[in-house]
Design goal:
It contains two helices and six strands; from the N terminus they run ααββββββ. By secondary structure, the protein is of the alpha+beta class. A hairpin with a 5-residue loop joins strand 3 and strand 4.
Length: 116
């Protein structure tokens, strides 16, 4: 089989697609997902329940934003948890609103999905 630029490009795209599909159950995808138990969340994750978290929401304990996945923030709730960032309510699950919360790592606030 002759190697052509098209064959090489196809192989690269295929490998990249496999890589992305392997990451679909990561913490990046799970923070903010509904849950009933910690076991419904990724390893090391927790299921937050109660009035602020209708239907439960998967999260990760944190002390700073560097402990959180992409497009989430470490806020000063439940001893420090990662919650999905938002600009408005339409970016949050049903029952949640986009609300300003204190950053866990000090200073400022972040808009996250919570029912506070």
């Amino acid at each position: 089989m002759k190697n052509t630029p098209g064959t090489f490009l196809f192989a690269l795209v295929f490998i990249f697609a496999l890589f992305l599909s392997a990451c679909s159950d990561s913490a990046d995808d799970a923070v903010g997902a509904p849950c009933d138990h910690d076991s419904h969340c990724p390893p090391g994750g927790i299921c937050l329940k109660g009035g602020k978290y209708p239907g439960g929401t998967c999260s990760i304990p944190c002390n700073s934003h560097s402990h959180c996945p992409y497009y989430t923030a470490c806020v000063d709730q439940n001893g420090g948890v990662c919650l999905p960032l938002c600009d408005d309510r339409s970016q949050c699950r049903g029952g949640y609103k986009c609300d300003r919360q204190d950053n866990r790592s000090g200073g400022g606030k972040a808009f996250v999905c919570i029912n506070d």
